[in-house]
Design goal:
The protein is mainly α and 77 residues long. The protein is built from three helices and two strands, in the order E-E-H-H-H. The longest helix has 18 residues.
């Protein structure tokens, strides 16, 4: 599977002009707002996984959880 085909980590339909939508969203929000966005998406994918996307939705939830964890880690010095 190529990066362009990765529907969990880098879906090609979320990138335009070399910029992923998630990065544009982050740039438009405060840190607290962005963390709320990540948390909301995490909840959404866990909530619906049995009725819609199955394991792929759980993988997407995990992606949002990883991003939320990273946003709360202290910067590397």
């Amino acid at each position: 599977m190529t990066a362009a085909d990765d529907l969990v980590n880098h879906p090609s339909h979320y990138a335009s002009g070399g910029l992923e939508c998630i990065d544009a969203i982050q740039g438009s929000m405060s840190k607290l707002e962005f963390e709320g966005y990540l948390k909301g998406n995490l909840i959404k994918y866990v909530w619906r996984y049995r009725n819609k996307g199955g394991v792929q939705d759980l993988q997407k939830a995990n992606w949002y959880l990883d991003r939320l964890i990273k946003s709360n880690q202290p910067p590397n010095d």
